[in-house]
């Protein structure tokens, strides 16, 4: 069916004009962390928010109040999770996981690569993206909790290492 009448189109326009500003308002008051690229839980919330918005706009069975309640609950839950995450190390490790060392001083961490399902060419790609010409120019490559790669260049000064909280670093430090 190509066209079912103007009432459905008008309903979608009205819903979009109502839901979009409400969503922007809710996200604004909930803080920057609500839609940040932080971890798997944040991605799930982002997808769920998109799903609720689409359902409110396109479904005749969901009212605006039900949709806004769903959005509000997702944002409240995201706020609660991030609040707990900042205050509890145990909760953080449950939700977020740990960064993983994939390469250290030119040596690939084979077990870590297999565990994280990362190929050596992906590590080399991250090194190139960081502007380094060779694997040896990097001190380490870390798979972060948000799925991105961090490339640490060889250190030239003494100080606290940025690898301090990375799984596998302490074993390879000595």
UniProtKB/TrEMBL annotation:
UniProt keywords, alphabetically: Cell membrane, Membrane, Transmembrane, Transmembrane helix
Superkingdom: Bacteria
Cross-referenced Pfam families: DUF421, YetF_N
Chain segments annotated as transmembrane: 6-27, 39-58, 64-86
Annotated ranges, domain YetF-like N-terminal transmembrane: 21-83
GO cellular component, one term: plasma membrane
Signal peptide as annotated in the record: none
Compartments reported by the entry: Cell membrane
Membrane-protein topology: Multi-pass membrane protein
UniProt similarity note: Belongs to the UPF0702 family.
Protein name: DUF421 domain-containing protein
Species this protein is from: Halobacillus halophilus (strain ATCC 35676 / DSM 2266 / JCM 20832 / KCTC 3685 / LMG 17431 / NBRC 102448 / NCIMB 2269)
């Amino acid at each position: 069916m190509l066209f079912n009448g103007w009432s459905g189109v008008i309903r979608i326009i009205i819903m979009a004009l109502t839901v979009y500003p409400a969503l922007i308002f809710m996200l604004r008051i909930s803080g920057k962390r609500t839609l940040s690229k932080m971890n798997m839980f944040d991605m799930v919330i982002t997808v769920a928010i998109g799903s609720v918005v689409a359902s409110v706009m396109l479904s005749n069975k969901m009212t605006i109040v039900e949709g806004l309640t769903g959005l509000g609950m997702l944002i409240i839950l995201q706020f609660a999770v991030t609040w707990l995450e900042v205050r509890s190390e145990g909760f953080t490790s449950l939700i977020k996981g740990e960064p993983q060392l994939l390469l250290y001083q030119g040596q690939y961490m084979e077990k870590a690569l297999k565990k994280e399902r990362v190929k050596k060419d992906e590590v080399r790609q991250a090194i190139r993206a960081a502007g380094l010409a060779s694997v040896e120019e990097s001190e380490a490559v870390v798979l972060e909790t948000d799925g991105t790669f961090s490339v640490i260049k060889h250190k030239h000064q003494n100080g606290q290492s940025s690898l301090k909280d990375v799984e596998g670093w302490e074993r390879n430090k000595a």
